[in-house]
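Researcher: Checking consistency across runs. Here is Dipeptidylpeptidase IV N-terminal domain-containing protein again:
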Amino acid sequence: YFLCMESDFQDRPPKAGDSLAIGMVDLANNEFIPLTETKAWNFQQGCMLHWLEDEQGKTIIYNDRIDNKFHAILFNVETKEKKILPLPVQALSPDKKTAACLNFARWGVWRPGYGYAGVADPFAGQNKPEDDAVYLMDITSGAYKPAVNLAQIAHLTSDLDRRKDAPMWFNHLMFNTDGTRLVGLVRWWCPEAVDDVKNTTINIDGAVAERRHCLWMLNIGEDHPEIIVNDGLVSHAEWRDPDHILAWASSNLDEPHGYRVFNVMDKTNEVIGEDLLTEDGHLASCGRGLYI
């Protein structure tokens, strides 16, 4: 079976009342089998729909909105039984046992198209709320604990005055290939810091601002994140192995953008495909990592 989602429209962002159909295709006969629906989704990443590694291979996980909160849902495709988890999932560990979770409401405010509609940001008006955190959640029990919060990242990047009073939010999370590390992006909305035209946003009212970027890493089991990129650009990225991240990035404002391999152990990086890969884009490895 092949999991998929189906929308009734594609010409506008989803609103709070819009539902997304979740189903699967039987690859033996190409039949679409409807399963359920969700009201927590976007066009960029859907509802974070995944198969889980249960013994029968019949459980999926996805996000939904229930009683004005976002939750991850465990759903048995055969019995249609649901289990509601306390937080929504943004990334799954390789063994599918742990979810990394963030504030989709805040993400939707500051990066429309990536968060979800329908729930107000509980930290609206706060630029670096200490209680806005990435959480690690056990998929089986639903138990969760904070891993990294925005105030921690603000403290680690406090050397840059232009971001000091700017709103910030968590933006994408990724476990490494063996589940021992988690990286994530934090971004700031800086109306007064337009240094890089490729990061500049112009609102419909004419307001100009720039998104600033930080790539952080957490060793699972520890409580102190490390900064990999402080004030460059970080866009599409993926783990190459447990210790290396490939990203369209620059490690500071003076470096040109390009595909860079970051060594998270010694914090060095090197450019690959400098004259060939000249534009940002979605990337995926194949051939055991030999090709992208």
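Researcher: Does this match what you'd expect to see?
Model: One thing to look at in this run: Residues 2-231 form a domain with the Neuraminidase fold (CATH 2.120.10).
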